[in-house]
Design brief:
single chain, mainly alpha, Recoverin, domain 1, two-stranded antiparallel sheet, 5 helices, globular
Length: 107
């Protein structure tokens, strides 16, 4: 099982006040996806990947419609543009934060 401590530094680059408990809950949500290097990263240049985030996490966990979710993903991609390897935990954290949904993870 992934530990929040492994992702804190990366998340803190974008939100210095990030809660370790919230990050741990996102790690728990992602589960097995974090065990594989490829699936632990998000590729903003891969439409299939973004569609998977939009139709999965954004629609099911954040209760966003496809248009809002796509816009949210584009915003997070822009925020994280300096990172060649975009951590899925950080990406999902920022999506939840921007949507005002960190409360679903205890934040």
């Amino acid at each position: 099982m992934a530990k929040a401590a492994d992702y804190m530094e990366n998340v803190n680059k974008y939100d210095a006040s990030a809660s370790e408990a919230v990050i741990q809950k996102i790690c728990n949500y992602l589960g097995i996806a974090l065990t594989n290097r490829d699936s632990s990263l998000v590729s903003c240049s891969d439409e299939t990947e973004i569609d998977r985030v939009v139709n999965g996490y954004c629609a099911k966990k954040l209760d966003q419609n496809a248009g809002d979710a796509k816009t949210a993903c584009e915003a997070v991609c822009a925020t994280m543009k300096e990172d060649r390897m975009k951590s899925r935990v950080t990406f999902y954290y920022l999506l939840a934060k921007n949507a005002g949904k960190l409360g679903q993870f205890g934040g």
